[in-house]
């Protein structure tokens, strides 16, 4: 099948390279010429584990090409997969500028019947509007079908999720069109759930809102645990055994970030508001998350003055195994620290380039944890990269000026921390202080 994937970001590249790996002829199109130049040199503009090898294989088999030319992207193609960004306006509603521009381009350049498959997360009703926008720009008498096929991949596990995701949701007006899109994925043994277009659009928002709710719920529980001397990791483990609850998304921490949850929860509040529904539950979820992101520095302030302190921030990406820092808790935490007069040195294995564009030389950077914490007065663990989770606690004691650690991701077991002369503050668990273990040394 001849397919064009529009947008070569996290979703577009995983989708395009994944579909090419399944044997389809795929062209990845982007208006960002620099990204296309990189891809033509077999270089990925993003970090996504496992994707580089698949890219090289698909190019070798001549299943994958790249272009920044609209006519090459749209003229002779059976399927167009939409993976352009849908960022937020300041009121939280979805900014559909990229979608609108793309629809105009499709209308201008498409020369044969085409099925447009929307993977971008778009408000309910957008696929219907897209059909009208494309048809209004058509230069040729062709038929255009719109299919909603929301994307559920997790950055950092995108390749796994393309080949082994939990479900493929297809929302179409006609069964025959849904079948044709499902057929593109037939080599995958993933359950296909077929529904109408608007329900498919809503499934994406409802899923993300539900996961965000689980996160904010356990974070609220963690705040209470701190006050009643319970341990949130024990509580979550005990809750998660119940099959009706499940163990996933019950890790207390410093809140969710990334390009999806913050944007999609805000957009769903707006979508509800547009039909006069006050989505109070989701508003509370967002509020709890904002509070949680700010909580680690506030906790630190209660026990020390951060002015003039050398602070190591460990982890910049919004979660491990990605270079994506969009809406990452690290961004707020670093701003809080700088505002309080701290000197920040940030460690991350993949995201430093992106962080430099934001913080420039207001922050020092290191790709080595030991270098970041050496002579530091405090360390903040912000992202649970494997390198951070497995970093020996003894090193904090050896290298830091003052071994004080604020762990926003509960990376270490308390029993282990207790073996070392470290002040350790985590989320929803008891505090460990050096003096408590002084008898050991
Ligand atoms: P991204 O910002 O990484 O990539 C979007 C790309 O689209 C950019 O390279 C941009 O240059 C390109 N683009 C913009 N307008 C274009 C146009 N008119 N023609 C061609 N290319 C154009 O975005 P992303 O993270 O891949 O997300 C894409 C969509 O998928 C969003 O709607 C997002 O909400 C949704 N989504 C993202 C994830 C995720 O984990 N990133 C997961 C599920 C769904």
Automatic annotation (TrEMBL):
Tell me the InterPro entries matching this sequence.
6-PGluconate_DH-like_C_sf, NAD(P)-bd_dom_sf, UDP-Glc/GDP-Man, UDP-Glc/GDP-Man_DH_C, UDP-Glc/GDP-Man_DH_C_sf, UDP-Glc/GDP-Man_DH_dimer, UDP-Glc/GDP-Man_DH_N, UDPglc_DH_bac
Keyword presence, Oxidoreductase: yes
Tell me the superkingdom of the source.
Answer: Bacteria
Q: Does the keyword Oxidoreductase apply?
A: yes
Q: What molecular function does GO assign, one term? A: oxidoreductase activity
Give the UDP-glucose/GDP-mannose dehydrogenase C-terminal domain ranges: 312-414
Pathway involvement of the protein, from the record: Nucleotide-sugar biosynthesis; UDP-alpha-D-glucuronate biosynthesis; UDP-alpha-D-glucuronate from UDP-alpha-D-glucose: step 1/1
Q: Which reaction does it catalyse?
A: UDP-alpha-D-glucose + 2 NAD(+) + H2O = UDP-alpha-D-glucuronate + 2 NADH + 3 H(+)
* UniProt keywords, alphabetically: NAD, Oxidoreductase
SUPFAM superfamilies attached here? 6-phosphogluconate dehydrogenase C-terminal domain-like, NAD(P)-binding Rossmann-fold domains, UDP-glucose/GDP-mannose dehydrogenase C-terminal domain
| Enzyme Commission identifier(s) | 1.1.1.22
Protein family membership: Belongs to the UDP-glucose/GDP-mannose dehydrogenase family.
Alphabetized NCBIfam families for the sequence? NDP-sugDHase (TIGR03026)
Q: What is the protein name stated in its UniProt record?
A: UDP-glucose 6-dehydrogenase
Source organism of the structure: Bacillus bruguierae
């Amino acid at each position: 099948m001849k397919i064009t994937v529009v947008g070569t970001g996290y979703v577009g590249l995983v989708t395009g390279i994944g579909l090419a790996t399944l044997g389809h002829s795929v062209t990845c199109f982007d208006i960002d010429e620099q990204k296309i130049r990189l891809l033509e040199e077999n270089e990925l503009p993003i970090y996504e584990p496992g994707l580089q090898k698949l890219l090289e294989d698909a190019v070798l088999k001549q299943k994958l090409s790249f272009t920044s030319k609209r006519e090459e992207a749209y003229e002779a193609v059976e399927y167009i997969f939409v993976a352009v960004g849908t960022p937020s306006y300041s009121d939280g509603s979805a900014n559909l500028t990229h979608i609108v521009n793309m629809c105009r381009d499709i209308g201008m350049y498409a020369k044969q019947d085409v099925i447009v498959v929307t993977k971008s997360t778009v408000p309910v009703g957008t696929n219907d509007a897209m059909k009208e926008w494309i048809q209004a720009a058509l230069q040729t008498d062709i038929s255009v079908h719109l299919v909603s096929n929301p994307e559920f991949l997790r950055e950092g596990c995108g390749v796994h999720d393309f080949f082994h995701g939990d479900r493929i949701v297809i929302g179409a007006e006609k069964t025959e069109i849904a079948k044709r899109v499902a057929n593109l994925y037939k080599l995958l043994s993933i359950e296909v759930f077929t529904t109408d277009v608007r329900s498919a659009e809503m499934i994406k928002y409802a899923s993300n809102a539900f996961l965000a709710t689980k996160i904010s719920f356990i974070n609220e529980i963690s705040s209470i645990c701190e006050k009643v001397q319970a341990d949130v990791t024990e509580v979550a483990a005990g809750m998660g055994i119940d099959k009706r609850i499940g163990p996933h998304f019950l890790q207390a921490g410093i809140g969710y970030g990334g390009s999806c949850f913050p944007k999609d929860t805000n957009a769903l509040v707006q979508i509800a508001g547009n039909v006069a529904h006050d989505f109070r539950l989701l508003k509370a979820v967002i509020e709890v998350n904002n509070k949680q992101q700010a909580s680690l520095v506030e906790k630190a302030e209660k026990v020390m003055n951060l002015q003039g302190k050398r602070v190591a921030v460990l982890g910049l990406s919004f979660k491990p195994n990605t270079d994506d820092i969009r809406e990452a808790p690290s961004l707020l935490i670093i701003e809080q620290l700088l505002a309080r007069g701290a000197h920040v040195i940030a460690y991350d294995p993949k995201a430093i380039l992106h962080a430099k564009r934001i913080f420039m030389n207001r922050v020092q950077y290191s790709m080595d944890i030991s270098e970041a914490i050496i002579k530091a007065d405090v360390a903040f663990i912000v992202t649970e990269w494997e390198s951070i989770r497995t970093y020996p606690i003894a090193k904090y004691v050896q290298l830091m000026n003052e071994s004080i650690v604020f762990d926003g991701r509960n990376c270490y077991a308390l029993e282990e921390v207790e073996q070392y002369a470290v002040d350790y503050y985590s989320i929803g668990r008891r505090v460990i202080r050096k003096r408590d273990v002084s008898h050991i040394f």
